[in-house]
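User: Okay, second chain of the day. Same drill as before: sequence in, structure tokens out.
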Amino acid sequence: MNKDITVAVGMSGGVDSSVTAGILKNAGYNVIGITMKIWDGAIEIQETTKHACYGPDEWEDIEISTDVCKKLDIPYHVYDLSGEYKDTVLKYFKSEYLAGRTPNPCVLCNQSMKFGFLIDAAKKNGLEFDYFATGHYAKILESNGERLLAKSPNDKKDQTYFLSRLKKEQLSNIMFPIGEFDKADVRKEAERLGLEVASREESQDFISGGDYTPLFTAEETIPGDIVDDRGNLLGRHEGIYKYTIGQRKGLGISSPKPMYVLRIDAKKNRIIVTEKANLFSEKAYVTDVNMLKIMEQNATFSAKVKIRQNNKESEAEVKLKEGAEAEITFDAPALSVTPGQIAVFYDNDVVLGSGILK
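Assistant: Same drill. Structure tokens below.
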């Protein structure tokens, strides 16, 4: 019986997590709302009308989550994890950019914060629950006694890319109640539940305003050269953290042909640009491989590989290697393979695993 099962729901103030809590409550589960507070005001970030995950408008998320939990008549707890967020997500984000790589803070936040520190904080403070649920668009499947992470049928909203770094053991007590919904259905359910968040806009940026500059000191934003792949000087950049592989817009250079970022040379503090034809790779290499489906060591398998959240998947062969590394050979050359991003391996809708692009 569901009434004997307690589920903690990660509340964000958005319609997805609010409806998740409502669905579980109506299904008879004992539901508890929990939120991590990550903003401590130490960094001066301008509050904007465009909502973001990290910034001074966090108070609004907590206020809305409080109201939702009152409406649903469920307990609600907030845990201050701003220190953990600073030491984990922000430190990683800055160090990766300054090393010439392009990090994905949302992936690490899910892995370490939402499904890590938040759960730990709740349990350390005496909360007991059987499952942890979120409003992510993803599914948990059972196959031959193995719990697997799988895509939402709503391909445009699927969030398995951001969840691919979860450990296999974490899948045993996770629920995604809206995993098979589309956004319109979620909003209709919010209206049916009488929740005012039904029409609330989604968070679009990692940081308020989408400008990462406040996270970096003046010493870390040193201007440097923009050169082509032959070493010819084309312009100047304002800090390597503002660039990513494949970028074309905002380069501020003059060239007879469209130029794209080919490489970020952190040691020489310069951006190397090239023509689009030179951005394709037949192979890619990943480290810190995290397998969510059991496979033999050093296995080789076919998969669809996604190298960025908004990229289409590419048919490829993946060869697992010693030291949690893997080699990816694309059937057709892939565009803009970007160090620091995540490569996710899929078998149809099932997430086989992932690795960090080198």
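The mean pLDDT is 93.

User: Thanks, on to the next one.
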